[in-house]
Amino acid sequence: MTKLVITAAVTGATHVPSLSPYFPSTPEQIIEDAVGAAEAGAAVVHIHARDPKDGRPSSDIRLFQQLIEEISSRCDAAICVTTGGSTAMSLEERVKPIGILKPELASLNSGSLNFAFHLLAGKLKDPKFDWEVPYLLATEDLVFANTFKNVKIFAKAMYEVGTTPELEVYDVGMINNIKHLIDVGALRAPVYMQFVLGILGGLPATPENLVFMVETARKTLGDGNFVWSCAAAGKAQLPMACVGMSMGGNVRVGLEDNLYIGPGQLAKSSGEQVGAVVRIARELSLEIATPAEARQILGLRGKAGGDLAV
Predict the structure, then answer these.
(1) More confident residue, 308 or 244
(2) DSSP assignment of 38-88, as one string?
(3) Are the beta carbons of 130 and 95 closer than 8 angstroms?
(4) CB within 8 A of 221, min separation 6: which ones?
(5) pLDDT for 272-300, tens place per residue?
(6) pLDDT at 308
(7) How confident is the model at residue 30 (pLDDT cuts 50, 70, 90)?
(8) 77-131 residue pLDDT tens
(9) 224 domain-assigned
(10) Has residue 108 been placed in a domain?
(11) Segments forming the whole domain that contains residue 255
């Protein structure tokens, strides 16, 4: 078994600032949360940008540049830049950071789905910003579109600048999508897949479903043709991390996926969740990958080679 790669997804585009006083929504907060997660044991940090004025998801390249430069200057963690952006962004907005910033790793959603989180609106009693409730409610009538053509565009942009795609897999049919894209040359094996469970519109977060995903990947892609990690939304985060680790996979935690560290207890940082995974991993006699080891396991090029000129 190789060492465990822990990813911290620190802000995302699902939660809104009013859901937790600890949620990072300014560049400074996102940077601190990412660095803290790396210090706690995360070898990879996954970042989205947010508008410093009101915390809404942003595609501003200068915000991404600030995040990458400052996180890189303070820790050695590999940085994974989103191309998911938010479900309201255009394809052009979502792909823009890749060609300009040339990250080591970038998320690549491997299929379309009803990506709904409108139920979170019911948890907002006194929203800080007027955009939050409409933003959440709009997802009840929204399809997060990731067509074969679009995925090819993202993958081409990544390979051209030496970025490794992290394939986000929300349902089992997306594994077949990945096989097709490998067959036509749009993706290169071995691929890196992040199984994201528990999204309303995707596969529920259960041990049986994770086993099904991994076994389907083995049968469809073949052993040796993929590396995988597991992420789960909400309260399933740590239980599914335990299952994933026990199965020999890597794990993702962080405030993007779950605002809590225990029942009714808000997590104060993504690093707090990373720390919990590290403790569990040690009880399972698993070794935690350093950023350098994670780069080798995931086939990343390393920090050198990026061009942050805007």
Answers:
(1) 244
(2) HHHT-SEEEE-EE-TTT--EE--HHHHHHHHHHHHHH---EEEE-S---TT
(3) no
(4) 175, 178, 179, 182, 189, 191
(5) 999 999 999 999 999 999 999 999 999 99
(6) 42
(7) very high
(8) 999 999 866 666 777 888 888 989 999 999 999 999 999 999 999 999 999 999 9
(9) yes
(10) yes
(11) 6-298
pLDDT at 86: 64
- The confidence score (pLDDT) of residue 247 equals 97
122 lies in some domain: yes
Assign 94 to helix, strand or coil: helix
Give the burial class of 53: count Cβ atoms within 10 A of its Cβ; 0-12 exposed, 13-18 middle, 19 or more buried.
exposed
Cα(147)–Cα(150) distance, integer angstroms: 5
Amino acid 304: pLDDT: 60
- Give CA–CA dist 229/209, Å, rounded: 14
Instruction: Tell me how far apart the alpha carbons of residues 51 and 59 are, in angstroms, rounded to a whole number.
Output: 9
Which CATH number fits the domain that encloses residue 159? Answer: 3.20.20.70
How far, in Å, CA of 305 to CA of 69, rounded?
14
197-232 burial, b for 16+ CB within 10 Å, e for fewer? bbbbbbbebbbebbeebbeebeeebeeeebbbbbbb
* Residues 6+ positions from 176 with CB-CB distance below 8 Å: 220
**Would you say residue 308 lies in a domain?**
no
pTM greater than 0.85:
yes
Length of the chain in terms of residues written:
310
As for how many domains the chain has, the answer is 1
